[in-house]
Amino acid sequence: MQVFKFGGASVKDAEGVINLGHIVATHRANKLLIVVSAMGKTTNLLEQLTLSYFEQRENTFDLLEQAKQYHGNIIRALFDDIHHPVFNEVSNRFVEIEWILEEAPADPYDYLYDQIVSVGELVSTTIVSHYLNHISLPNTWVDARDYIATDNTHREGKVDWQITEARVQRDLQPLLDNQLVVTQGFIGSTSENFTTTLGREGSDYSAAIFAACLNAESVTIWKDVPGVLNADPKWFDKTELIAELSYLDAIELTYYGATVIHPKTIKPLQNKNIPLYVKSFVDIEDSGTQIRDTKGALPIPSFIFKVNQVLISILPKDFSFIVEDNLSDIFRRFHQHKIKVNMMHNSAVSFSVSVDDTGDNVNMLLHDLKTRYEVQHQNGLELITIRHYNQQTVDRVLVDKAIIMELKDSYTCQLLVRKLR
Ligand code: ASP
Ligand code: MG
């Protein structure tokens, strides 16, 4: 039993869906669970729609229309018969959004977000499932919400592994013995059957959850890049493909911000010793990257860039030291404002952290911290993390940069820098 995950970019248009069909056909000899994200940039669009609705702006229905048009074009390109049931089913999915929009928003934003944004995955899988049937790849469409049980933390649902595993083994496993199964990434449901989502880009994590519960042989994530590269091509011109990566290295890379895989994906696979393949959906014969339990993988220096960082330095007002008491108070405030620390450094008299400059909530945090501490901040910084660094790689990234803060351990070097003109 294998799990294949297809992200938004892989199914952004009709050609993408056809290509997915080709990949599945090539692997049809295996038992296969196919996990699919929303098509293209649908999640962003539905996110906008939710906000628009929540703020009762006028363009809400235009945004819905855009989503319908976009998917309409894809299905018309895939199915010649305009009476094919897929047309009706997709339009019924959008009716679920219309029902919500008919009333003024009475529920919290995060809750509404999950009910609306999840439709992206329900629509994409409806299309993919019908298309596979259409090309003689019979399959069963299943609703991931019947399996992935979460708490009611909307937009960041925490998985209840016990319930999820029991349901998957009882009901999903037998289905897979007979047929291909198509399901959604990213979504789950609460014990009261409200839809939840697992956090942006969470479909990778869904694939890992299913794989772990099914004791799958492997997971393959099909991407628009050849595999895990040692840097994001957006920032680096000469990137290298990492053919083999240990679970630990993969966890570290995603922790420091490599966006190729969702950070929560690796751990459940590592626990069950299930290898993860990251492959190109364009060059499907290429081997891509293998992430597994290995000690032999060559340490290839990898670079992770985060721009738009703000350095916050916190000093006690009364010349005392930064001790445990202050630290726990400081962390509590970060947590309260939902701000994730990317790098931190503690000295006797100050505690410094770098965080993403997300605007409003950082300002609120600064304001809050100032009630108890002396606070300084600098923005417009870049954070560069090098895994398996050496002097040469450090020198390479420091061209025209001034170091503001630097942290090194045996494997990882973090440099917070300012660009020099
Ligand atoms: N569709 C969701 C998102 O764009 C989940 C995913 O793609 O993994 O965040
Ligand atoms: Mg995606």
Q: Order of helices and strands, N to C?
A: EHEHHHHHEHEEEHEEHHEEEHEEHEHEE
Mean pLDDT: 95
Structure classification:
alpha/beta
Shape: globular
Are there runs of 5+ residues with pLDDT below 50, and where? none
Structural account:
This protein is an alpha/beta fold. The chain contains 13 helices and 16 strands. The protein folds into two domains: 2-223, 3-Layer(aba) Sandwich (Carbamate kinase), CATH 3.40.1160.10; 302-419, VC0802-like (2-Layer Sandwich). The protein is 39% helix and 24% strand. α2 (42-54) packs antiparallel against α3 (60-78). The N and C termini lie far apart (54 Å). It binds aspartic acid and magnesium ion (MG). Residues 7-8, 37, 201 line the site of magnesium ion (MG). Residues 7-8, 37-38, 43, 120, 185-186, 200-203 line the site of aspartic acid.
